[in-house]
Amino acid sequence: LYNSGGTTEYLMDISGYYMASDAVDNQMQAGRFTALSPSRIIDTREGNGATKAPLNSGQTIDVQITGKGGVPSTNVRAVVLNLTAVNPSTNGHARVWPSDIAMPNASSLNYTTKQNIANSVTVPVGKDGKVKLYNSGGTTEYLMDVSGYYMASDAVDNLMQAGRFTALSPSRIIDTR
């Protein structure tokens, strides 16, 4: 981490890691990434995949991921999303995490009033094929596009397999504040 000048506070969250490996062409191998053409999973402005309404401060919604936008219905460990906050009424942040665990203390996207901003998010998928989306501040519209997924293993869950991505629930590893 490098700061080129002045004083700046930093937050750093970790959401996964890759093991070193030689290239393997089998994209269906557990932990291997499969890229997709971006596909809109939710748009709260239009009521696509979620209620047609902005999320309120403190509101959490469930978002179905598997079986949507080219993501298989089963055997998915994690997805790569583009999350966009649209026209937030106040400063705040969004959190995205697997549906079957408690909300982590790590933001996925930080925004300021009236700022439309996007961020790439890699997140594990809950056992029910869903993720949760939390809005911290004011009212905010959200867009969520999926652009790829990581396969789970239904036979052997060897986390040390070379080349494999291991998704983690977002967790804060640095907070200089």
Explain what you see.
- This protein is mainly β.
- It has strands at 11-18, 33-43, 60-64, 76-86, 92-98, 109-111, 117-124, 130-135, 141-151, 165-175.
- A 4-stranded antiparallel beta sheet has the order 2-9-4-7, with no helix packed on it.
- It starts with 10 loop residues before the first strand and ends with a strand.
- The relative contact order is 0.33.
- Mean pLDDT is 84; it is low at 21-28 and 155-160.
Give the strand order of the largest sheet, numbering strands 1, 2, ... along the chain: 2-9-4-7
> What share of residues is helical?
under 10%
Structural class: mainly beta
Quaternary: single chain
**Rough outline:** globular
Low-confidence stretches: 21-28, 155-160
What distance lies between the first and last C-alpha atoms, to the nearest angstrom? Answer: 15 Å
Overall pLDDT, averaged? 84
Taking all Cα atoms into account, the compactness measure Rg is: 17 Å
**Individual helix count:** 0
Features:
single chain, 177 residues, mainly beta, four-stranded antiparallel sheet, 10 strands, globular
Quick structural overview:
0% of the residues lie in helices and 46% in strands.
Topology summary:
Layout: E1 11-18, E2 33-43, E3 60-64, E4 76-86, E5 92-98, E6 109-111, E7 117-124, E8 130-135, E9 141-151, E10 165-175
Antiparallel strand pairs: 1-10, 2-9, 3-8, 4-7, 4-9, 5-6, 5-8
